[in-house]
Design brief:
By secondary structure, the chain is of the alpha/beta class. The chain contains ten helices and eight strands. Helix 7 links the parallel strand 4 and strand 5. The radius of gyration is 17 Å and the shape is globular. Bound molecules: zinc ion. The site of zinc ion has 7 residues, from helix 8.
Length: 245
């Protein structure tokens, strides 16, 4: 077994995973928007899992209040840009992965360009406007999008297989249910919950990259880790959605 196969040998022992599955992961690229508590953990696992190229995007800087959950960052990173610090840290975990950082907010045409060239997008922001912007551009480019959020003790994970069957989208969801618009900023979040959401998002990403089906297409999975309850909700296509799909 060569060094690379040995590195991923636990993957290769899975009964539905072979050398080709790992190659599919290595030939893939992911755009992660938001390097907070979810994005840092998702990126850490995806880099270590051998995704070929990962683009990290965040215009924000590290604050000391981020440290309990954004565990790629340390005290001496306070006031530094999150995407740039994450790129430097992650490179040491797996130098085989090409990592790029973007330290600014991207406009529609910049996102269009980048998203057209990646395999999938993970939305780890805490911002409804950015979520809807990514939703629109991923649908336009027929790219899968994974949305991850962490609020209080809850992880929210949704998958949109825009590359195959486009059903209800995020714009359909938010137009029909304003109650979903909550943020961890306003509600608080336990540090481990953000990490759990990051790992779940990374798992969905790996499943898509290696060609597995997901049960989550146009569904939102809500894990209440305080009460250990998992709910799966269908995101219905809305007639009021102003995105053509
Ligand atoms: Zn829609």
């Amino acid at each position: 077994m060569n060094k690379q196969s040995h590195r991923y040998s636990a993957h290769l022992r899975l009964n539905d995973f072979d050398e080709n599955s790992q190659k599919l992961i290595e030939d893939s690229s992911i755009l992660i928007i938001g390097m907070g508590g979810i994005g840092t953990i998702a990126s850490l696992y995806l880099v270590n899992s051998g995704v070929g190229k990962i683009i990290l995007c965040d215009y924000d800087t590290v604050d000391i209040s981020n440290l309990p959950r954004q565990i790629l960052f340390q005290e001496d990173n306070v006031n530094q840009n999150k995407a740039i610090v994450a790129k430097e840290k992650l490179h040491h975990f797996n130098p085989n992965v090409l990592i790029e950082s973007i330290d600014k907010k991207l406009n529609d045409s910049e996102l269009d360009q980048i998203i057209s060239e990646v395999s999938l997008v993970i939305d780890c922001t805490d911002n409804i406007q950015t979520r809807l912007q990514l939703n629109k551009i991923c649908i336009r480019n027929r790219k899968p999008m994974i949305m991850a959020a962490a609020i209080r003790y809850e992880c929210h994970i949704a998958v949109f297989r825009n590359d195959s069957l486009i059903d209800g989208c995020l714009n359909c969801l938010y137009q029909s249910d304003e109650e979903n618009i909550e943020t961890c900023e306003g509600n608080g979040v336990l540090s481990t919950i953000a990490g759990s959401a990051g790992i779940m998002a990374a798992t969905e990403a790996l499943k898509i990259l290696m060609g597995q089906d997901t049960e989550l297409n146009s569904m939102i999975s809500i894990f209440d880790l305080k009460n250990n309850i998992n709910q799966l909700l269908k995101i219905k296509k809305s007639n009021n959605c102003n995105i053509s799909h």
